[in-house]
Structures are given as C-alpha cells and as structure tokens.
What does this fold into?
Amino acid sequence: MSFDVMQSRPSFPRRLLGFVEANGQEAIILAAIILLFVVVGVVNPRFLGNSNLTSIFSGNAYIAVAAIGMALVIISGNIDVSVGSLIGVLATIAGTLAVNGYPIIVCWLAPLAVGVAINAFVGFLVAYVRIPSIVVTLGMLSVLKGGLISATAGAWINNLPPEFMLAQFRPFGVPAPIYFMVTLTLLAALWMRYSGFGRTIYAIGGNPDAARVTGIRIERSIVCVFMIHGFFAGIAAVLFATQLQVIQSTVPPNLELTVITAAVVGGVSILGGTGTVIGSTLAAILFAAIGSALIFTNVSAYWLRAVQGLFILATVLADMARRRRLR
Amino acid sequence: MTAIVELRQVSKSFGNLKVLKDVSFDVQPGEVHALLGENGAGKSTLIKIISGVLHPDEGELRVVGEAVRLASPREARGRGIATVYQELLLFPELSVAENIYLGHAPRTRWGAIDWPKMRSGARALLDSLDSHDLDVDTKVGLLSVANRQRVEIAKALSQEARLLIMDEPTAALADSDARKLLTIVRRLRDRGVGIIYVSHRMQEIFALADRVTVLRDGAFIATKPIGEVTEGSLVSMMVGRSIDQLFPKTETARGATVLELRNVSHREIVRNVSLTLRAGEILGIAGLIGSGRTETALTIFGITPATSGEILVDGKPVVIDSPAAARALGIAYVPEDRGLQGLVKPQTIRENISLAIIDRLARLLLIDRRREGQLARESIARFGIRARGPEQLVRQLSGGNQQKVVLAKWIATEPRVLIMDEPTRGIDVGAKAEIHALMSKLAGQGLAVLMISSELPEVLGMSDRVLVMRGGAVVAEFDRADATPDAVGSAMTAAGQSSLEGAA
It folds into this structure.
C-alpha cells in the first residue's frame, strides 16, 4: 500500500519561514521599531526625548485604532479605501456637536453610532448586493469627501470646549490615546484569536466558498466586520478631533492609505485570511516613528510616503512568495 | 506513412501524482483517432502535451517524424497543431472573418490588412466546411455555439492545421448540430487532416473513429482499430481493474429512511429527482459530468435550493435554503473540489476541523481551546491523517490527507446524512482505499451516505444501491447485485445514441 508522503523534518529555511509565517511579521516589525529608535537615538538624542515620544505614540494612536478595523476588513477578504474620509466626517460631526453645546458624552458617542451605521450600509452592499468592496468604498470615498467639503465649505472648527478634548487627558501622566491604542489592540487581538466570530472571519477571508459550504452565514459576518470597522473609525475620529484645538475638514490627506499600509505591512495578507491586529498597530507605530526620524535626521519628510510605499511592496512580495512556496 | 504526431513513452507528474505513465500514442494523416478514458484517466494531460501547454517529464514528442520540444501553444500552432477547445476562445465583438484570421491576417504591399483577401479567404474556408449560410461579416457574439465552433475550425484550417484536437466537441450541441459537425470532421479527414477526437458518446466514436486509444489512471491500455472493439469491450477497458482490494465494502444492516426527496427540481438542472436514503446504506449516484449528480447534492445541501418538490428528513418535510440550514438538520457535504470548497488552506488542521462546529465550541464568546485541540488530535488518530500535528497548515498536506481533514470536519458535526462528491478524485490509490474504508466504517455505524462519483468502479464497488442520472433526471436504479459495469455504463451514456444514428 502506498502511503502519502509525510512532511518529515523540514529544512532550516523552511522552518524559519514557518516561524515567520506563524508569528514573524509582528516580531520583525517590533525589531525594526527598536532598531530605528536605537539608531536615530544615537544620531540625535532628542529623538528619544519625552515630548517627541509622546507625539509619536499619542499623536498617531488614532491611526493605529483605525488600522485595527482595517485589519479585520482585510482579513475578511475585503478592503476599505474610504476610511480617511469617514474619519473626517465623523470628526466633523463630533466637533460640530461640541461647539453647539451638546452633552460631551453625546459628542463622543455620536461618531461611533454614525460610523457603525454608514459601514453597515457599506457592508450590506458588499455582502448582499455583491459589489466588490473596493468599488463600494471608492464610491463612499467620493460621497464622504465631497459631502464633507460641501457641508463645511472647507472651514475649520474652532473654539472646542476643553472638556471635549478627550485626547488631551493624561491619566497618570500618560496621554489618553495611548490607553485607547493599547487596550483596543489587545482586546481585538484576543477576540480575533479566541472567539468563534474571529475564527469565522479568518475562514471567510481564507476561502469564502469553503466557509459558505461549511454552513457559515458569510453575508451576515461581512456586514458585522464592516460595522466593527465603523466603530473603530468612530473612536479614531474622536481621538483625531480632540487632539488639537482645531478640526481641519481636510483630515490628513492619504489617511486611508496610511491605515491600509499599517494593516498590510503589519502582516495582514492583502489576499485575506491571515494577519493580526498586533501587527497592524506595530506597523502604525513604525511609520509614525519613521516620519519623526526623518525630521530628526534632517531628511525631507516627503520621503515618508516613498518609504511607506516600499514597505508595502516588500511586504506584499514576501506574502506572495510565501504563498507560492507553501502552496 | 509518417505520423503527424507521435508520443513515445511519455510520463507526466503533478507533485506526487503521476498522471501519465509511459504512454505512447500517434495520429496518422487522414485519420480520426478517438481518445477514451474516465475523468482523470489522463486524456486532458495528453492533449495538453501535444498542444504545447504542458511538457512531458519523460519520453519524447515527435511532430512529422522530428523530435521536438514545444515551448508554447503558439509554437504548436506554428507546426500545424490546432485545438478546438470546449470553451471557445473567440472574440465576440469581432467579425467572423476577423476571428478566423486573427494574428495572421493577409497583408497588402503597404502592410495594411488586406480586407478583400481576408473576406474571400474566410468565405472559401467556410464553404469548404459546407457552411455556406455563415456570413463572414457577422459579429461572432451573435452566432450560436455550433456556428462559433465552425468558426474555430475554420480558424484552425486558416493556419494550415495538419492535426486538429477536438475535446468533447459535441457536448454543448443539439443533435442536428452534432450531426453536421460529424460531417465536417469526415470532410477534414478526407482532406488528410489528422484528428484527435475526445468524446464520451460511444455512438459518435463508432460513427467516426478509425482507431481508438484507451487510457486508465494515466496508463496506456490499448490502441485498436475501431473494427476490433465493441462498446462493451471499450467500457471494460476503461473501468476494469481489480476491484476487491480497493473497495472494502462491508455488509451492514439498513435502518430507517433518513432522507427522502420527492420530485425535487432546481430550475432545469435538477429535474423531478426522487430518492430515499436509509441509515447505514451507501447510495451511489453515477452519471457523466453535467448529468445533474453534483447539482442534486448542491440542492440537498441548500447551496442551490430546490425550486419545487419536497425534501423530508426523518419523514418530516423540511426547508433547506442554505448550507447552514442543511448543517442544522444533520446533513454534511464533502464537496467535489476540496481546494475550492472544502478547506481553508491558510489555516491549521485544528482550525479546519473545528470550523463547522465553532459555535458549539464557543462558550461565552470564547472558543474552548482545550476541547478544540482534543477534537483535532482525536480526528487525526481516527481518520489516520498523516501530519506533524494539529498545528500544521492544511495546504502542506497531500491530497488524501486533505480529504480526510474535510471528512473529519463534517463528522465532527455528528451528521446523520453524509454526502460525498467525488470522494477520491486526484488522490493516490493507497489513500483511496483508506477513504473507502472510512466510508464503509461510517455507514456501518449507522450514517446514511450519498456518494457521487465519476469513477464507475468506485460507484459499483462501494454502493448498496446505484442511481444513474442523465440530463438532470434519475434514469435508472440498480441494486448492488444487478449493478454491472455494462448495465450502469450504458444507462449513463445512452443520451444521444438514437438521435445520432442518422449520421452513422
């Protein structure tokens, strides 16, 4: 009787690849962050100063929070290219409510509710009407961005009440956004790893047909994923809206790209089915640190986009190679 | 006479699976050479080697006496080898003449396309195929399938094809069109073109072929002049093998009826199918591809829900409108294509096995990892899955072991009805026997098994009863004792027999 070939002890490169496959991307990024801090710290010690570290971690926490939702969407085999505009709209809603004297708690929660509602609609179009998510969110991008500029006429929101400024709170001396980033990342990571729903999302992204044939209601799950993504976008919007004294209606341009880059470079396969939110948060920190490092080493900050682009290409290439090798 | 194409002792493997073993084959000018074999026998691989899509691992390919290595389908075309594919590769927005001469249009002295020459050339080619009714200026998208096929053939002739490969050319044609096609094929043969003709329709083969070659499990069985074979002898060459070791069928007591279909239809694809399935029995469904076998399974499992008729589980009428509903009723489905529909390949064995019961394993949102690990380890032992452990990724496993993972996933749901579609396709003989043994054992434990297979020996070897489907309907039923290869085989292929006799 002929037996199937069993995988005997694999070669060292293959085992290394297996390690990277299992938990490596996060480890690599963490190593890159540490390396960056050491090298740039030696070149310019002010890089490691308290105020700069605060600005790196706290000032970019909202990107990491948005990247958590983005990671979930990409793991499920979809994408959202409109998240930057969504955050802009939600931040404007929060700010407008705040300057008009609504209770602070309403100002904080309204963006979450609106984010969930808008993305429930997006998820519905993707899952039930079966329009590819890139098309739906490309449409949303224009709708949200156009609507925002028309509604605000490009004006900035000023005179925000001080009690509204959630991101400026510093419990125990640590800026509030860092609490949000760390707590949400850990909760989402545990939930994705240990909950039935998390497993379902990985299965849908890994092979939607197999998931459906296994009896998973994938339409419902995809709508849920987009709603969760909307929820995280809402939190990101509140952190963004409350960190400066003004809310710019333009949001940081290319925010959606930064968020997608963080998720993908953090190890979330652009093809769906693999990756973790720990990786996406670490990658968001890495990019923030690179941006700051460029300034501290007197390199034009415009290089940041190029560096991000190279990272994305390298990561996707590595992902492709890995898949090809392990098929 | 020199053969147009000759294969000498050609072998080809994909990974561990040897799909062609030492096959020799040749086509003479002015000959129709029929190629026969079950699905997976190696026909397509052989055709792909001749048409330059694949390269042989061993052996040689000779074109008109010269040993060659065809780097691409383009090079094969340059040597006069043309293929008419099942799915036609034409451009619907271009005219008939443009399609025929695409890539090698006649040119004027100035390098522009010589339209009058192209149109008259296309006209002449179509006339030579007796297709006087086809307008060379019509857009191909407006033509029927039969006419598009003629355009494909004309296109092959325009490149001065010496060998034409036709893969199931009549599968999508109505009977009258199929008859016309046979006339065209004969006309080509009389002109000295060699033709490789693949078809499941026995009547066509006897009406057309000069010689016939049978492949089985990638091995060469025989090449014979058509006068020396009968339909019966061809079928037994295609399926015959030592059946006992491969099919460890144990007799089991049959219990109550678990699943019953009453006149179930899905659109025009599944027509008024009625069947009963009892606990402890294996019911085999035989039929050609497109006969409605798989489609019936998809309907029972709620992927393409029934549009009419009644499905009963344990005697009670039920509505199955999704795989989730089917799963809740205790129905399990091991799909035809485990890669596409069975496995989540980036995930581990553990994660794949628990996927169908992940809701049951979760307590207060979180998965009970201890129970999940236990389930995976037990399944690996019970199903004989050869792997490093529960944490190995399923895409690293061999086909047979992947299939065991899919089976384990479904058995974890503790189903009452197990549907297995092509349970052993693409896996080696040893693993086949293991899967069969598992099936027998599960039936012995009271599971009702519905097995769909293209492999006649598998259906005959494993089933307590056999249903034969054709054209979406159940056309015959046999008890194990009456299910002979000849009886089942002719019930499967009877379609088109009577209607094609006029062409013979």
